[in-house]
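We read letters as residues; the fold follows as tokens. A sample entry reads:
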Amino acid sequence: MTLDYGLAVSPYQVPAPHSRFSSVGLRNGQVKLLSFQARLFDIRQSADAVPLHRRKQHVICLHHFERPMKLERNLDGRNRRETSAKGDIAFLPADAPGMLRFGKDDPEQLVSYSYLVFEPSYIADLALSNGIGGPLDFIPTFSTPDPFLHEIASALASPQIKDPAGNLFVESLLNAACARILHTYASVRYPLSGPPRLTDDQLRRAIDYIQDHIREALDLGSIARAAGLSAFHFARLFKAATGDTPFQFVTRARMERAKELLRKTRLPISDVAERVGYQQPSHFSARFRSVSGCRPDAYRKSTGR
């Protein structure tokens, strides 16, 4: 049996009042974040186990169990009984057969986990664009702690203020997740090495590009190309050089430009918002307040304009 985790459905269909399921599509559906929660009792009423199946996608299963939970997992022909806890992940490569059965824990215990689902072509294309040739040999992995991937999934799931740099935020997180997969859960032909740091010239070109395109919907690939680097390595090196992620830096640059316009001009707030890349003044005001601690009109008033 083959399961398509790219569909916005849960592998467990649990029609119970305490169950919850959500799906977030990212990168035009090439990546999805599925979240699931139900009582162990309700899961057992619906199905004794996830039957042996193959996945169409690469799946990171992130465990959010508040208490350790016993699992029996068959993965790529290997069987293991394990006790998994919050902060663990299992990496389930596409086409690797797998089966999961929950142990005899407290039936009232909440089973809570997420799937971070990648289309194989998404990771393969990202790897190839960074000099990592195929075929890629992914390593099926039983439950193991991985707080880094949990942090990424948590950030992807967090509600964000609508922002023209939102894609930049998501791209940076997904690139970091893919780098983690290729470094830890795959055997690759070439090591994941890049330049040790940004040169002064590369950093200047990246910052100049941001400033020159501040009113546009900036994306990670465009900024990285301006610096002469792949997006894969750029975000990490940029943060090392500036102390900010590209998303944080772009947001800060937009707010500094907005402050300058608020101080030096009498432009309406809507025009200021547009000049720093926000089509919706309400989204601009929310971001300005989150960064500066006050609304744009209050800031302008405090400067005497």
User: Anything to note?
Assistant: The longest strand covers residues 31-39. The chain has a mean pLDDT of 86. Residues 166-184 form the longest helix (19 residues). The chain has eleven helices and 13 strands.
